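Request:
You are asked to prepare a plain-text protein record giving the amino acid sequence and the backbone structure tokens, at your earliest convenience.
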Amino acid sequence: MLPTVLGCNAGQIAQAFAVPTSTMAQRLVRAKSQIRDRRIPFVVPGRIELLGRLKSVLEAIDGEYAMDWWLVSGATLRDSLADEAHYIAVTLATLIGDQPEAWGLAALVSYCVARAPAREAAAYVPLEEQDTRRSNPDLIRRGEQYLQRPRVGHGP
């Protein structure tokens, strides 16, 4: 997903996953070979197929967010990889509905995107030093709803 859909290169992906570029390049080559050899079509998979690939899909979404976690790659948050990761995480969780890991990722990315304005001064700003008044309260509420979803069985 990251190189094909988002146009990210092996170096960017490696940095997001904290592995050497050569390691990630090898992983990408193996993944492309598996897709080719198994003749996996480039389509949105059905629910059963998606559940079988869920771990990999969640890792890709997390990686997408990680590539953009402290800065906005677009002109605004709306144009950024972080916002796109948030959209995909929430869409995925909604589509499969009953998977706590998907709702957990949707919550995590919601919280992180909500806090982005509070920590834009540097790559790492400890929580106690962040200006939480700048956080997005709507995204924080939605993150909390996503965390509750798997336990109580109601929508976001």
User: Anything to note?
Assistant: The chain has two domains: 1-43, 46-152. Residues 1-43 form one domain. The radius of gyration is 17 Å. The chain has a mean pLDDT of 82.
